[in-house]
Design goal:
By secondary structure, this protein is mostly beta strands. The longest helix has 9 residues.
Length: 144
């Protein structure tokens, strides 16, 4: 049974709410997925829309999950962010409208990008649960 966006938002932890709805940032090295090395996909905690693949995740040394590219580019929206008196590019989920984090131009090849994402905005779905959770079309990325 699918819940409305409002119902889902009401079920978020205080940290998940602050990050996704109020553009907060969780602590570095003290978050759920910064060091996760399991195969699977990361989806928006609010909408469930697919955002990132574990195979595009890398250790940036920042203490937050970092990815070279989105899994589905149309699910990630970029917006200018000048809140800290500097120009940054914020990334949000398209359907959920969740604040995810920021994208920077200091990542590894092949993209040169670093999507620095808050774990609190994500839900990780392990490869072994993709079919059960309705994301079986993403299994093809792991069976190469």
């Amino acid at each position: 049974m699918k819940h409305s966006k409002e119902e889902t938002i009401n079920k978020l932890t205080p940290l998940q709410y602050e990050v996704t709805q109020n553009n907060s940032t969780e602590p570095a090295f003290d978050n759920e997925y910064w060091n996760n090395k399991e195969e699977g996909i990361y989806v928006d905690i609010v909408s469930g829309e697919p955002l990132f693949l574990s195979t595009d995740k890398f250790d940036s040394g920042t203490g937050w999950p970092s990815f070279t590219k989105p899994l589905e580019t149309e699910n990630v929206v970029e917006k200018q962010d000048t809140k800290l008196l500097m120009k940054r590019t914020e990334v949000q989920s398209r359907q959920g409208g969740s604040h995810l984090g920021h994208v920077f131009n200091d990542g590894p090849e092949p993209t040169g990008l670093r999507y620095c994402i808050n774990s609190a905005s994500l839900r990780f779905i392990p490869k072994v649960h993709l079919k059960k959770e309705g994301y079986e079309n993403y299994l093809k990325f792991f069976d190469k």
